[in-house]
Every structure is written in structure tokens, then in C-alpha cells.
Input
Amino acid sequence: MSTLSQAMLLGAWFGVLHAFDADHLATLGGLAVRNRALGACGYALRWAIGHAAAIGLVAAAVLGLGLTGALAVSRYAELAVAAALLAIGIKAVLAARAPAEPAAAAHAAPEAGPHLHLLAPWHVHARRGRASLFMGLLHGGAGSAAVLALAPLARLPSGAASALYLACFSLGVAAGALAFARAFASLARRWAAGSARLAAAFRAAVGAAALATGGLLLYETLDGGD
Output
């Protein structure tokens, strides 16, 4: 197997592992459970696109233009991710405590026509996909330093090979995020099929996980900056 092939496989594998970072999973779960405008896979795909875009921009700045100062964005992005996770968690927990509404609601949306949505309180057309794309950008910026540090380990011979490595990494991230989203959606459907109380408990648990992850990330980021 050639060095380039090894780099591609290594990048994809690191990407899959990276997708399962606790803050990534908490974000994807929190977004999907508090806003059902998209399915969990829809949020995961948009998040992965934002993540890849951020990594590409930072990589181009550092590897292509030699702007090593671009890596400084990582710490600020980590702080932004922590704050966003706390906000997502608070909203999810508060929504879980709100009075229950009918399990399914029909309504008309200008762009889609009449349709049904389960767990209707989480349905907001106006923000469809924007939050997950934005969070992907933040996560990509926050993880860029670690990703770029892994690139030399593959002993890549050229800038083109480095770009291919990062592309495979991003594809691996997308695959991992989609795999988690499918499992999360299946679990959410099972809980929602039980009772309103079980559905609320599930949303509260996801919100609590986002709060805990955001709080830990905030502490680690601030403590690491001292």
C-alpha cells in the first residue's frame, strides 16, 4: 500500500474517531432533540459540512499561507462551543419541563405544503439547519489545532497529499456523525413511542448531557489557558 493510500485511510479513521468526541455528540443530540425541523441525520450532515469548511479554511491559512497565528482561533472556538452547549442544554431541559402538547401536529408550511411532525414543540422552520451548520463551523475551528498536528504523523510528501488527508478526515467525521445520528434517532423514536413523560425524560437527559459537557469543556478551556 502506498504512502498516500495509507494517509487517506488514516485520515478517514481519525475522522470517524473525532466525530465521537463527547462535545460533538452532545451538540448533535441537543440540536436534534430541541428542534425537530430536520431529522437527526439532517442536523448531522449540516454539522459535518460546517466542520469540514472550518478545517479547510484553517488548513489553507496555516499550510498554504503560513499563517500560524490562525491556530489561535482554536481556544476561542472552544469557548464558543462550551457556551453554545450550555445554551442548548438549558433550552432542552426547560422545554422538557414545559406542559405537554399533542404528540403529532399538522400544519402548513409555505415551502413544503401541509405535513406532519412528531414532537411538534421542537419544530421551527425558520432555523432549519442553520444552528447545526454554525456549530459545525465552531467545532471545526475548535478542533483544527489537533487535526493539523496529526497531519505530519502520516509523513505526507506534498501539500496536495495533506489536502487529501484532511478531505478524508472530513469524510470520516461525516460518516461518524451520520452513524451516531441514525442510532440517536432510533433511540429517540423508541422513547417518544412510550409516553409523553418518557419523551420529556429523554429530552431532559439529552439537555443535561449537553450542560455537563459544556460545563466541563468550559472548565478545561479556561484552566488550560492559565
The radius of gyration is 19 Å. DSSP finds eight helices and two strands in the chain. Residues 102-126 have pLDDT under 50 and may be disordered.
